[in-house]
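hi!! sorry for the late reply, been swamped w classes. u asked for the two structures so here they r. pasted raw, havent cleaned anything up. first the sequence of the first protein and right below it the tokens
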Amino acid sequence: MNILSEYISFMLERQDQILSLTGQHIYLTFTAVFLAILFAVPLGIAITRFEKVAGIVVGIANAVQALPSLALLGFLIPIMGIGSKPSVVMIFLYSLLPIIKNTYTGLTNVDRAILEAGKGMGMTNWQLMRMVQLPLALPVIMTGVRISAVTAVGLTTIAALIGAGGLGQLIYRGISMVNNKMIITGAVPAMVLTLIVDYLLNILERVVTPKGIKKK
């Protein structure tokens, strides 16, 4: 209990710093994931219309995902310098794959009979996409967004290495000082933030999913 009390006291002494760094962490994560959604969802929709390029697009996103984050930062720093910009771009690139893949998968797995019925009613391709395919695919798309957002919270800790701030700053400072209390002070809020993001997106998924459509 004494050890736990020491950790809690250590964190309380630095609560202002923790709150400030948490704010930076949220900003970096939200910006990158929001931009990824704006880019990846339309791209996922587009490749359902051009099946020949679907494999290429997903393959490129897979290749980016497989690239080590530190190596990716190493490529971005000479171009964009240090700070928040390369960090946001890195998180953005890593966030693309789950959203593109789930958007594509969700749309292509819509029952063909439903689409044929819509065409029989005189719906255009755009109307089918907006009124039938997207609502039916929404649970799968939201799962991709949740995966990206949760992963992004963890990736944002790396941003501290290039001066972008965030909770990773406490973690890396703790590592350099061999200070476990400092490491925990950064790691615990990051873990809690991950759980909160996942919980809130789960609620959002339920809100935006039309009634009668089961989550896959």
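now the second protein. again sequence first, tokens right under
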Amino acid sequence: MKKAIVLLSGGLDSATSAAQAKADGYNVIAVSFRYGQRHERELEAARRVAQALGITEHFVVDVNLSQWGGSALTDPSVAVPTEGVKPGEIPVTYVPGRNTVFIAIALSLAEARGAEAIYLGINAVDYSGYPDCRPEYLEAYQRLAALSSKAGLEGRAPRLAAPLVMDSKVDIIRRALRLGVPILETWSCYQGGEEPCGVCDSCRIRDKALVAAGRPDLVSRRGRELLGI
């Protein structure tokens, strides 16, 4: 059976990407990262999502990006913004080099296991302006994948698949529902509390989209309060 590596953060987008890989007929190997993020709640979510989707091989890789700071997600002294993102501005929640590092590790695993594809949950529509979530970034990385490995030189470079890259968040939620993604097990909040904060950029985009998709029942408690539902 053909294999695919899936970068599984524990969030809604990566969980939907994993479910899509399975629907596309791949035997999925999941990879999550302990990269010095504010909390480990998302890693627990990734574990639960993998279990719910029947993914039996799930790696958790330690890559400590918090040592040099540079992001609100890895440096507790930098506040997570709650007032939205200004157009054209890359927010402080951007983690320098994160996707570049993660995809490189996924490429190593893909070559070692003979995987044909790497599925990514990146999105260039309802996102926070991150430079490493754009189609042109993926295109450049695909070229690198073909040049940087034995598999690539032999014409077998893994395909970087980003099935959600041009979907709106509402589209992603509808896809997730069709694919049976355990949405309530996913964790999108930038904070690490007992419940989603409802006010960070990730929470607000997710909660509004759930309402627009006709699933206000899946909105967080704090989100329901803020949206008046």
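hope this helps!! also noticed smth abt the second:
The chain has a mean pLDDT of 93.
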